[in-house]
Amino acid sequence: MSRKSLKRYFEILELDSDASLSEIKNAYIRLKRLYSTDSMVITPIADEFSKKRRLAVLQQIEEAYTKLNEVLKDEHQKSTNFGKPGMASENDTEGEEVDSVSFSGDVLRQIREKRGIQLYEVALDTKIRVEILENIEYERFESLPQEVYLKGHVSNYARYLLLDSRKVADDYISRYKAWKADAKEKV
Amino acid sequence: MEKSEKEGKIWAIGGGKGGTGKTFVTSAMGTYLAGKGKRVVLIDVDIGGANLHSFLGINRPKKSLTDFFETGTSLNKLAVKTGIDNMSLITGDIHSLASDSIKFTQKLKLFRHIMKLNKHYVIIDLGGGSHNNTIDTFLMADKMIVILEPEITSVENMYHFIKNALFRKLRMSLREYGFKEIVEQMWERREEYNIKSLRELMDSIRDSFSYVGDIIDSVLSNFKIYLILNKIRSSDDILIGSSMKSIFVKYLGVDTKFVGFIEYDDSVWRSVRERRPFMLNYSLSRSAKEIEVFTENLLQGKEIKLSRN
After folding, report:
1. Is B74 at the interface with chain A, CB within 8 A?
2. Residue A1 — pLDDT band, cuts 50, 70, 90?
3. Which of A62, A136, A137, B169 could be cross-linked to A109 through a Cys-Cys bond (beta carbons 3.0 to 4.6 Å apart)?
4. ipTM of the shown complex
5. What total of structural domains would you count in chain B?
6. How far is residue B247's CA from residue B245's CA, in Å, rounded to a whole number?
């Protein structure tokens, strides 16, 4: 698929069709934040610009990003950020290059802070409570829900941060398991 | 004259809230364009109190648009020198612009005369508010420019202003095509149709009268807004401009270009107090540079390039 046939998706992300992958990602993060938070520009029209409408906009943004990412990744694989840790997309099947980083709670927190995202913003979007997110980041395993639920939360959070959700969840759960085994031994 | 200049001769500066810097931007853009050798006339139609002359450091002109309406004085005769080469000023006053003293036909006559002015650019300072005369003048312009301040009050008033303008444009266009009643009827029966906003009104009209869908589309495609953000205090504030633009596009379907911003700058009021045109007095300031950038963007129909964006 050529860049021209992707015009619609570039328009949704409010970009020119020669935008780079990192511009695409930044626009995606910015717009996703705009339409999922109650900011000064949303509040005055929140009544009429309903949650439902905003959700529809968010879906379009999501679709545009996924599509552009999918198609343009090959085009730019070597020259962009996408090989860096934490930048792989969800449907990244050949994400070997990201394996160098192991995702701990601390790494997740650092990535989030680097992007200037607040925990409550994550909570609004993922529907995961702030205290759970905080426990995930600080690896307070004893306060976290059971493994199956935890895995779901961690992948959701990872997806929100545009990380490879499967890898993040696997890394995180293996840390959780190690802690659990450790705790058992002590008993 | 280049084609693009011909097409974009009349610029109107509005945006709803008073005090966001419309008059300042009008005077500064005019000074910049005149400095490039363009023939410029500024028209001050601020109902709340025309004071564009003060930004240029001159006295209030003796004649105003009242003379145009009452005695038919030509616009060329009303235009006074501003002390800046190539640039003149025409002033309105509360009397001539207040709510009902001016008839629709008179307004059209004024617009016709404005279009005929032998100038490269006519820049109209609309002042605050969303009065019908203000909105109609805004809609007449080739470039509809709005000034936003990073304050919630300014955001609120701007929504109001833009929705008003779009609603009026929609009604006018449908009337032209002979569908005068549609908007009124729909709006009157809004409870029945569950219409709570302009957007829902447009959607409902589309759904109920598929044949007017094209008219709505053409109204929207000709309704272009140029957004300038004034008095920003941090680089984060710039996001408010791009967010506003995004919502206009995605929610109202209005083509919007975010052309630039101006940092909050004390030298602006200092320059008014000194009665000297800002662009001459502080030509090397950051604000002056920012004004040049968005004026060029307006000329070329380009958006500002945001590195973070």
Report:
1. no
2. low
3. A137
4. 0.86
5. 1
6. 5
